């Protein structure tokens, strides 16, 4: 089973000084966010600097290919354009623009300022999917009345991706990502959860934060509600019973609705008598994944990559920092995920090609925050805890705009990682 990891790190590109590092960036095993110069002249100068740094003229054919791929990845130029520029540099010709803007150009609806604003939103929100980003832009304009989002608030998902592929956007922001891979007892029922439109059926999974010289790092616990995608993340030193059980109780208490179901993979950290006793005391149904049914816990595993790995990466973090990371999750990450980060929700339709089968469609208008999804459920399916109301939750959600909450989250994360010495990509 593969877990998608997408870690973006602000990094000084000049630190890439060996061909091995170049190949890691191109392959994606070393991820970074590189903000290139704002104009072609600046990027031309950067290309010349990289070619000098690696002594391009003296390299062999394979090494030259790696450098060309590296330049293409980070400059935003096509392979052909990079090849032309490098050939010009090898011939000792200056790298300058030798073309002019067409006299008669088509009118543009989205300006350079709109593209820069989209890049700023993506940087703050962590580059969400197109429908989720369109929802954020619409909320910035309609809910929070933030100036500057008048045009972006109406952008289609297709054109949003066009802007992300544009040279102007890539001048602002170029991101590279990567992927990574990821054990039984007669406790719990082996089947998928059956929420039937009710909130309170959560899926849970654990994410290990890397080893270093044989020493285990801390663990993140990720719990997601099946229907509303309300998400709670916590951090523990180890996944032993002594550390895990109190955190599971704390996590269950952070959901605004009553917990009716608890679904996990077949790892011994959850499938044990202590956890089963806790859930039985709370009158919570305990289910676990079936063999050869990888989608039984697919929602939690998807969020592992899209949220947990994107937020914390996969390099080693010592266990002694678990308390600080857990506090960060409670105070910053979980409120942001549930009040400000849109998720995609499917619309089920009959499949015309396969009678009796259901086809899931993800539409742009179905992107919403977990709180909005909870509010859209019939009252009987919300199952709110005693003393919790939607009005109170909405007050918490509107205290900051989505982008303001993302910026506050980013500042808190930077302060958090300053506690972790010599963290590498």
Uncertain segments are 1-11
Order of helices and strands: EHEHHHHHHHEEEEEEEEHEHEHHEEHHHH
CATH class of the largest domain: Alpha Beta
| Main beta-sheet strand count, sense and barrel state | 6 strands, mixed
CATH topology of the largest domain: Nucleotidyltransferase, domain 5
Mean pLDDT: 85
What is the annotated CATH architecture of the largest domain?
2-Layer Sandwich
Question: What sort of overall outline do the alpha carbons produce when their principal axes are compared?
Answer: globular
What's the β-strand tally?
Answer: 14
Helix content: 40-55%
Bin the strand percentage.
5-15%
Widest sheet: strand ordering = 5-12-11-6-9-10
Number of helices: 16
Topology overview:
Layout: E1 2-5, H1 19-27, E2 33-34, H2 40-53, H3 61-75, H4 79-90, H5 112-125, H6 130-142, H7 157-165, H8 167-172, E3 174-175, E4 178-181, E5 189-190, E6 201-208, E7 211-212, E8 215-216, E9 219-225, E10 231-236, H9 241-254, E11 261-264, H10 273-281, E12 285-288, H11 298-312, H12 322-339, E13 346-350, E14 358-362, H13 370-376, H14 379-382, H15 390-397, H16 402-417
């Amino acid at each position: 089973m593969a877990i998608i990891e997408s870690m973006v790190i602000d990094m000084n590109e000049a630190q890439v000084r060996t061909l091995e590092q170049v190949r890691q960036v191109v392959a994606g095993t070393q991820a970074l966010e590189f903000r290139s110069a704002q104009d072609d002249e600046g990027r031309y100068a950067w290309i010349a600097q990289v070619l000098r740094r690696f002594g391009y003229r003296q390299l062999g054919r394979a090494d030259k290919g790696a450098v060309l791929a590296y330049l293409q990845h980070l400059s935003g130029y096509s392979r052909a354009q990079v090849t032309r520029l490098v050939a010009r540099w090898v011939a000792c010709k200056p790298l300058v623009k030798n073309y002019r803007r067409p006299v008669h150009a088509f009118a543009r609806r989205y300006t350079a300022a709109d593209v820069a604003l989209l890049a700023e939103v993506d940087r703050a929100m962590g580059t969400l999917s197109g429908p989720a980003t369109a929802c954020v832009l619409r909320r910035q304009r309609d809910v929070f009345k933030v100036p500057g989002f008048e045009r972006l608030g109406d952008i289609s998902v297709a054109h949003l991706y066009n802007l992300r592929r544009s040279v102007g956007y890539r001048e602002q922001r170029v991101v590279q990502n990567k992927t990574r891979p990821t054990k039984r007892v007669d406790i719990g029922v082996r089947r998928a959860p059956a929420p039937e439109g009710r909130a309170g059926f959560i899926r849970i999974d654990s994410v290990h934060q890397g080893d270093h010289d044989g020493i285990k790092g801390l663990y993140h616990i990720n719990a997601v509600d099946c229907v509303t995608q309300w998400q709670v993340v916590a951090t523990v030193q180890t996944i032993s019973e002594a550390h895990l059980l109190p955190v599971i109780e704390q996590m269950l208490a952070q959901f605004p609705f009553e917990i009716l179901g608890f679904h996990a993979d077949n790892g011994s950290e959850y499938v044990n008598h202590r956890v089963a006793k806790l859930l039985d005391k709370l009158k919570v149904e305990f289910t676990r994944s079936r063999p050869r049914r990888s989608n039984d816990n697919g929602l939690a595993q998807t969020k592992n990559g899209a949220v947990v790995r994107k937020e914390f990466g996969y390099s080693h973090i010592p266990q002694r920092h678990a308390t600080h990371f857990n506090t960060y999750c409670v105070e910053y990450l979980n409120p942001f995920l549930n009040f400000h980060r849109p998720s995609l929700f499917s619309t089920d339709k009959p499949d015309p090609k396969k009678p009796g089968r259901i086809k899931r469609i993800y539409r742009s208008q179905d992107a919403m925050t977990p709180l909005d999804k909870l509010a859209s459920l019939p009252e009987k399916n919300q199952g709110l805890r005693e003393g919790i109301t939607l009005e109170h939750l909405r007050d918490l959600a509107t205290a900051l705009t989505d982008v303001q909450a993302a910026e506050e989250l980013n500042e808190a994360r930077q302060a958090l990682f300053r506690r972790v010495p010599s963290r590498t990509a």
